Amino acid sequence: MNSDHLLSLLLGVPALGAFVVFFMPRQWARALRLTSVGFMLAELGLSFSLSSADYTDGGYHFVEKVSWIETWGISYHLGVDGISLWLVLLTTLLTPIALFVSWTSITTKVKEYALSFLLLELAMLGAFISLDVFLFYVFWELMLVPMYFIIGVWGGPERVYAAVKFFIYTMVGSLLMLVAILYLVGAYHEASGHYSFDLLELRHLIIPRATQIWLFLAFILAFAIKVPMFPFHTWLPDAHTQAPTGGSVILAAVMLKLGTYGFLRFAMPLFPLASQLIGPTIALFAIIGIIYGAWAAWVQKDAKKLVAYSSVSHMGFIALGLFSMTNHGVNGSLLQMLNHGVSTGALFILVGVIYERRHTRLFSEFGGLAKVMPWYALFFVVVSLSSIGLPGTNGFVGEFMILVGTFTSNAEVGFGPWGRVFTLFAATGVIFAAVYMLHAVLEIFWGPITHKANETLKDLTFREVAALLPLMALIFWIGLYPATFLDRSEDAVNGFVQDFNAKYEASKSDDSLRLWGEPEAPADAPPADAVAQGDDAPSVAAAAAGGAR
Amino acid sequence: MNELLYERALVWIILLPLIGAVLNGLLGRFADKNLVSALGVGSVAGSFFLALVCFAHLFTGMDAANEHGAQIAVTAYQWFHLSLPTFGGGVHEVGIDVRFLMDALSGLMTLVVTGVGLVIHVYSLGYMKEDPGYARFFAYLNLFLASMLILVLGSNLPVMFVGWEGVGLCSYLLIGFWYQTPAFAAAGKKAFIANRIGDFGVLIGMFILVSAAGSFEFADINSAAPSLTQPFFLGTWQMGTLATAAGLFLFLGCTGKSAQIPLYVWLPDAMAGPTPVSALIHAATMVTAGVYLTCRLSPVFMQSPVAMGVIAVIGASTALLAASIAVAQKEMKRILAYSTVSQLGFMFAAVGVGAFSAGFYQVFTHAFFKACLFLGAGSVMHAIGSHTDADIFRLGGLHKKMPKTSWTFLLAACSIAGVPLFAGFFSKDGILLGASELAYAPEPLSANWVGGFVLVALSLAATMTAFYMFRMYFLAFTGEYRSTGEEGAAHGAHDHHAYDPNPHESPDTMTWPLIILAAGAVSLGLLGLPTEWHLTNWWQGWMGHSIASVHAAAEGAEGAEESGLTIAYWTALASGVLAMAVGIGAAYKLYYNRADDRFRDAMPGRLYQLMADKWRVDELYQRVILGPLAGLATFVGWIDQTFVDMLLTRIPSKLALLSGFVATRIQNGRVYAYGAVMTVGLAVVSWFFVTPHPNLEGQAEGATAHFEAAAGMGYAYRWDFDSDGTWDAPTQGSEEGFGAERSPSHEYAFSALRGRVLLIAQPDGDDARVLVTEEPRPLPASLLPAGWMEDPTGDATLPSVRLEGTEIVLRRNSAVFSTPHGAIADEEVHLGIGDHVIVGRPETSRTDIAVRGLVEATVEVENAFGNRAHESLELVVNVPPERSEPAQARLTTATDEVLR
Question: Where in chain A are the domains?
Answer without folding.
Answer: 1-270+528-543, 272-480
